[in-house]
Write a structure and sequence with these properties.
heterodimer; A: about 240 residues; Four Helix Bundle (Hemerythrin (Met), subunit A); about 80% helix; about 0% strand; globular; B: mainly alpha; elongated; Cyt_c_biogenesis_CcmC (chain A)
């Protein structure tokens, strides 16, 4: 049995039913532990004071905003190549979650930027490319909503997602060219010698795990909803014929 | 291909407003700006390159939904799809026709609108050059967007939501080139990057356009 078998809608429904509560539960545990640890049991930064603690929301949500788009891109490619319906529905299900993650990242960034940079918003490359990413999400969702036939909608949004990804990357580098940044460098990376200090590092990792699990759980749940909605539509269509 | 191009151009001309409407819209945008921000030279001069580029972009956007919509309604789009001409080439021709009827006139007219915004004399050459390089990309991206929304009843608003974010890189490099030219700096970097984007659009987007059209005609 290949891994593609698990993407069969019926099998997908049956294996996600037991998995879903666990994913939600684990996400909840990770978020509670990570956020409580982060907010109450880490010291204040010597320069930023207590505002540093916004990273426990800001960094994971920004990470997931980008990863959600990448996941949609992969799902779109799978739909274009292998035409697995669940894949298209998962891409559709991920988009609103991605929008919310983008909004959380933008909002927490603004809340942090107000005391630190003295402004809610700056036309900085990173901020601006996130705003553009937000617009891409809106266009993608709007196209899904505008088309009646589900297969046509899946095809068109998949191509939009692929083309949009190219332009999202282009915009990101164009924006760097356009304006030098105010935003600090990446807080986390695999090859950097110095990440954030250890006291902040471990709760941050737990928060990121929590956001990843929460994203997974929400996407699985929304995909299940999409499959059910599709089934209801099929049943209704059959009822009208009879 | 040539025949299709000629047909599209003739249609645009005879339908009235093919050339004129985009230009008139561009003119109105440019005229409205001083009312909005004030007529002082110190205010208008620095923002002129950006306003001219945004005006060109909006004017190009205005005529996008005509690219495929009329052909879709009278069925000639389906004929095109079954003709020996590959759909990729048809998309390319449609984009070229759109560029000749909007991008080219906008490019030629832009320096005159530059006068209205009191732009620096040094910037005119860069404005012409950057529009000449950038507007084909606008037409190609727009053709892709128009192909995406061709089957929809009210696709116009959705079209702008889909297409405008895709215009961002072209706009950044175009306006940057003019701004650098106006400031007497070297603008070749921005122009080269813009040329790269245009070339990339022409390399990739005809295929995406054709794929989208095939889905919409299914």
């Amino acid at each position: 049995m290949s891994m593609w078998e698990y993407a069969n809608p019926r099998l997908f429904m049956s294996w996600t039913r037991p998995v879903l509560p666990w994913t939600f539960g684990l996400a909840g545990v990770c978020l509670v532990v990570g956020l409580v640890w982060g907010f109450f049991f880490t010291p204040d930064d010597f320069r930023q004071g207590s505002t540093v603690k916004i990273i426990y929301l800001h960094v994971p949500s920004a990470l997931m905003a980008i990863n959600a788009w990448i996941m949609m891109l992969v799902a779109s490619l799978i739909w274009v190549v292998r035409r697995h319906h669940v894949s298209a529905l998962a891409a559709r299900a991920a988009a609103p979650v991605g929008v919310v993650m983008t909004l959380i990242a933008l909002w927490t960034g603004a809340v942090w930027g107000q005391p630190m940079w003295g402004t809610w918003w700056a036309w900085d490359p990173r901020l601006t490319s996130f705003l553009i990413l937000f617009l891409f999400y809106l266009g993608y969702i709007a196209l899904w909503e505008a088309i009646e036939d589900p297969d046509t909608a899946a095809d068109l949004t998949a191509i939009l997602c692929i083309v949009g990804s190219i332009f999202a990357i282009l915009s990101r580098y164009a924006v760097f060219f356009w304006n030098q940044g105010l935003h600090q460098g990446a807080s986390l990376s695999l090859d950097a010698e110095k990440n954030v200090a250890d006291v902040f590092y471990y709760p941050l990792l737990i928060c990121i795990a929590g956001f990843v699990l929460l994203f997974l759980a929400l996407v699985l749940m929304r995909t299940r909803t999409e499959i059910r909605a599709r089934r209801i539509k099929a049943l209704q269509a059959r009822g009208q014929d009879a | 291909m040539i025949a299709l191009l000629k047909r599209d151009l003739r249609l645009a001309l005879r339908a009235g407003g093919g050339f004129g409407l985009g230009l008139a819209f561009f003119l109105i945008v440019v005229v409205l700006v001083p009312f909005g921000v004030g007529p002082e030279r110190a205010v208008l001069r620095p923002i002129a390159p950006g306003i001219l580029w945004i005006g060109a972009l909006l004017a190009a956007l205005l005529s996008l939904d005509r690219i495929f919509a009329l052909d879709h309604e009278d069925g000639s789009l389906a004929l095109l799809a079954t003709s020996p001409l590959p759909l990729e080439a048809a998309g390319l021709v449609k984009a070229s026709a759109h560029w000749i009827t909007t991008g080219l006139p906008l490019t030629i007219a832009a320096p005159f609108f530059g006068f209205l915004l009191l732009m620096q004399p040094e910037a005119y050459g860069y404005l012409l050059l950057s529009l000449l390089i950038g507007t084909p990309a606008l037409s190609m991206i727009g053709t892709f967007g128009a192909a995406l929304t061709v089957g929809l009843r009210r696709g116009g608003l959705l079209l702008s939501l889909l297409v405008l974010p895709l215009y961002v890189p072209t706009l950044i490099f175009g306006a940057e080139a003019v701004r650098r030219g106006a400031a007497g700096l070297d603008a070749s970097g921005a122009l080269i990057l813009q040329g790269g984007i245009t070339a990339g659009c022409f390399a990739i987007l005809p295929f995406a356009t054709a794929a989208v059209l095939r889905i919409n005609l299914r």
